[in-house]
Amino acid sequence: MDPEEIIASEKDGTLLLTVAEAARQLRVSRPTLYKMFRQGLLPKRRLLGRTLVARADLERLIASIAEAA
């Protein structure tokens, strides 16, 4: 499977999100998302020079935030 086929919009249930898509899901800015990477709150993946976020990691982060609230 072509990596570009894996990286698609959130509507199709993709496994990997771009930084912009992940930031949009969390309703934070891209710099804030990169800060979250540096702080270890959210793991990032690298594929063909692109920074990506696994949907499962994003969902775990959201669930942990909901539990803490």
Please, could you describe this protein's structure?
This protein has helices spanning about 5, 20-25, 30-40, 55-69; strands at about 15-20, 45, 50-55. The chain is α+β, with helices and mostly antiparallel strands and about 70 residues long. Strands 1-3-2 form a three-stranded antiparallel beta sheet. Strand 2 (about 45) and strand 3 form a beta hairpin. About 10% of the residues are buried.
Give me a quick take on this structure.
Helices cover 51% and strands 16% of the residues. It is built from 4 helices and 3 strands. The protein starts with a helix and ends with a helix.
Secondary-structure blueprint of this entry?
Blueprint: H1 3-6, E1 16-18, H2 19-26, H3 30-38, E2 45-47, E3 50-54, H4 55-68
Antiparallel strand pairs: 1-3, 2-3
Helix pairs in contact: 2-3
* Uncertain ranges: 5-10
The number of helical segments is: 4
SSE topology string: HEHHEEH
Largest sheet strand order: 1-3-2
The helicity comes to 40-55%
The N- and C-terminal alpha carbons lie at a distance of 39 Å
| Major β-sheet profile | 3 strands, antiparallel
Report strand %. Answer: 15-25%
General shape: globular
Q: Quaternary arrangement of the chains shown?
A: single chain
Query: Please, what is the average pLDDT?
Result: 85
Rg = 12 Å
Number of strands: 3
Structural class: alpha+beta
